[in-house]
Every structure is written in structure tokens, then in C-alpha cells.
Amino acid sequence: MDIQAIVSLDRTECAVQCNSKKRILEIISGIAAKNNADIDEATVLSALMARERMGSTGIGNGIALPHGRLAGLEKVIAIVVTTTPAINFDAIDNKPVDIFFTLLVPQEQTDGHLQTLAMVAGKLSDKETIKSIRKADTSDDIIRALQ
């Protein structure tokens, strides 16, 4: 799967002001529900919070990959948000996070879920991509950085 197939301008936000882990997950859930009639904001938040209780999705270097599986979802979607300032997200390196790449996947897509996570993690391991995302002033800039 290509990253362009799961990201979209209407699910990308730049320089969101936020100060807590719970609040960023609420913002992400709101973005997901606002742009998809099949998604309930509370259900998304519940799925993301449940996953975080199992262990932080903060993978280090200021990046987090919150993710969850949702019943009734037809295809994988991504929500990409940057924050200003970076926030404490209990990342594995104990550094604050400012890039959130959230994946929502259909409940039944276990293998696809892991493959998509691996693809996104690979893309976000590229230093130039991360530098471009951090310099982004608009959602368009973020989308371009991911291409």
C-alpha cells in the first residue's frame, strides 16, 4: 500500500496547539469523525486510548503512531497532525512528540494493519521527510513531505 492512498488534506492539520496526550487524541478523533460519516468520534477516542493503555505509541524522535481498529470501517485511513509545542506522550525515548501519524484500520484487517504500520514507520524513519514535516506551515506542506 502506498502512503498516498491513506492520507488526505482533510485529515491533516498543522501546528495544532495542545498540551496533553489525552487532548491530542481527542483532536485526532474529532478530525477523523468530522471527515468520515462512518466514524464516531467517541469510538475512535476509545480505540486510541485503549491502545495507549497497552503502551505508548510514541516511537521516539518526536514521532507517535497512534492506531486502532474500528468495526465498520471499510478502508485504512490516516490522520496526520503536528503540534506546537511538542507534548509529553510517554515516548520510548522520553522526548516530547510533535508529529502524530494516526492509523485507523478495519477491525478484521490484522495483517494489513501490521503491514501499514511498518510502511508508515519506514517512511517516518527518513530524516528528510521528518525535517520537511516539521518545517510545514500548511497541511499541503505535510502531504508534499510524505510523497
Number of E strands: 6
User: At the first level of CATH, what is the class?
Assistant: Alpha Beta
Number of domains in the coordinates? 1
Class derived from helix and strand content: alpha/beta
CATH T-level topology: Mannitol-specific EII, Chain A
Gap between N and C termini, in Å?
13 Å
Mean pLDDT: 91
Q: How many helical elements?
A: 5
Determine the fraction of residues in helical runs and give it as a percent range: 40-55%
Please state the overall shape, judged from the principal axes of the Cα atoms: globular
CATH superfamily: Mannitol-specific EII, Chain A
Any descriptors?
globular; 5 helices; Mannitol-specific EII, Chain A; alpha/beta; 147 residues; 6 strands
Architecture overview:
One of its GO terms (biological process) is phosphoenolpyruvate-dependent sugar phosphotransferase system. InterPro entries: PTrfase/Anion_transptr, PTS_EIIA_type-2_dom, PTS_Nitro_regul, PTS_SugarTrans_NitroReg. Residues 5-147 form the PTS EIIA type-2 domain. With 147 residues, this protein is of the alpha/beta class. The protein has a single domain (3-146), classed as 3-Layer(aba) Sandwich (Mannitol-specific EII, Chain A). It contains 5 helices and 6 strands; from the N terminus they run E-H-H-E-E-E-E-E-H-H-H. Strands 1, 2, 3, 4, 5 and 6 form a 6-stranded mixed sheet that branches. Strand 2 (58-60) and strand 3 (63-64) form a beta hairpin.
